[in-house]
Amino acid sequence: MPISQTAPMLLTRNLLYTGMTRAKKLLIIIGNKNIIDFMIQNSDNKIRNTGLAYKMNN
What we know:
By secondary structure, the protein is mainly alpha-helical. It has one domain. The protein has three helices and two strands, in the order βαβαα. It has a two-stranded parallel ribbon with strand order 1-2. The protein is extended and about 45 Å long.
């Protein structure tokens, strides 16, 4: 799983957790330890307007 410097709003704990839990047999995280530490500490959840509920009801 590559971890690179990007907008802080994208570097969230949820994204890291999703990548880790989707690994089937092995997970290798490649990236800067400071960025990974930031992601672990960043539990900020943004409201996402995906339209998924609308798409599922139609």
